[in-house]
Design a protein that fits this description.
166 residues, mainly alpha, three-stranded antiparallel β-sheet, 7 helices, 3 strands, 49% helix, elongated
C-alpha cells in the first residue's frame, strides 16, 4: 500500500501524464499492476492523502541490461520527458555529459589511461551522435511515449556506436 500518486507513477503506462523515470525503472525490474484504491475514510483517524494497493512481481530472470547504463539513459531522456529525444541529445549539456562518459569509459577499458587509446575529439563525437539521431525514427518521439522496448533499443543503438552512459 502506497500513497495514490506514487502508486500511479509506478504503474503508469507510456504516454500517460504520470509516466516517468520511476515507471520505467520499476517496470524494467518488475511487473506492476494497480489492484485497488483505498479511501482515506477507511482509516481512523483519516490521513490527508488517498492510498492504493499495487502488486510488484519481480521479473525472473532479471533483464540482461546493465542497470547503470540503463539508468543513465533514462535519466537523460526523462529529465525533460516532454521534449523530443533528438532535442535532448543535441543540447550542449547532454553532449558534454555523453562525451565525458565516453572518455571515462575509454579510460576504464584501458586500465585508467588514455595513452594508446583511440579517442575522438568532441567535434567528431558530436557528429557521431548527430548521425545516430538521423538514422532512427525513435529519436523523433517524446520521452514520455517510449516503452521499455524502445528505451532498450536506444541503449543498444548507442552502445553499438561506442557511446555509454556510465
Amino acid at each position: 500500500m502506497f500513497q495514490r500518486e506514487f502508486a500511479l507513477r509506478v504503474c503508469a503506462l507510456p504516454g500517460s501524464e504520470a509516466y516517468c523515470r520511476l515507471s520505467v525503472n520499476s517496470q524494467l525490474l518488475a511487473r506492476c499492476s494497480h489492484l485497488m484504491k483505498i479511501s482515506k475514510n477507511s482509516f481512523n483517524p483519516p490521513p490527508k492523502v488517498e492510498s492504493s494497493v499495487i502488486r510488484l512481481d519481480p521479473r525472473h530472470p532479471p533483464p540482461p541490461i546493465d542497470f547503470e547504463e540503463w539508468d543513465g539513459l533514462v535519466k537523460l531522456v526523462f529529465n525533460r520527458k516532454n521534449k523530443k529525444v533528438s532535442s535532448i541529445f543535441r543540447t550542449k549539456v547532454a553532449l558534454q555529459t555523453l562525451y565525458n562518459s565516453y572518455v571515462s569509459y575509454i579510460k576504464m577499458e584501458n586500465g585508467g589511461s588514455l595513452e594508446g587509446a583511440a579517442t575522438m575529439s568532441i567535434e567528431a563525437f558530436k557528429e557521431l551522435v548527430e548521425s545516430l539521431l538521423q538514422t532512427e525514427p525513435l529519436f523523433e518521439r517524446r520521452g514520455r511515449s517510449l516503452s521499455l522496448e524502445d528505451v532498450a533499443h536506444l541503449l543498444s543503438l548507442f552502445n553499438t556506436r561506442g557511446v555509454h552512459f556510465i
